[in-house]
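Re: the 143-residue chain
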Amino acid sequence: MTSTRSRRGRDAQAGPGRAVPGRDRGGGGGPGPGMAMFRSLVASAQQRQPPGGPAGGDSGLEAQYSCPICLEVYHRPVAIGSCGHTFCGECLQPCLQVPSPLCPLCRLPFDPKKVDKAAHVEKQLSSYKAPCRGCSKKVPQPP
């Protein structure tokens, strides 16, 4: 009975409407909290790629031009023709090795022959200076 009280105490401490880590509030056979977190991350990543982008400073620019796989500024960016999502060329390579590739972001099937160099992104990044990881200097992006 002690374990029941401690569990109830933890639930009560979390308060109404708050999730307790490791517990599914849905009750039943639905997807667990891990799937909800995954969907939240995907939605967040999709919102980070607006066509016009944020107008505020380097951090907004860096967020707009970050690969959703490695979370770094794009390196040799490529775009999937069917959905338009952009990734580093190297990051997308594992997806191209399977018979029926899916976009890592939206999971739509795509034709590997219709993955092209994202020239528009490279052009915009050519004038962008990224923060150096070792110091606070801004350095040009490599081609």
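Helices lie at 2-14, 33-47, 57-64, 89-96, 119-126.
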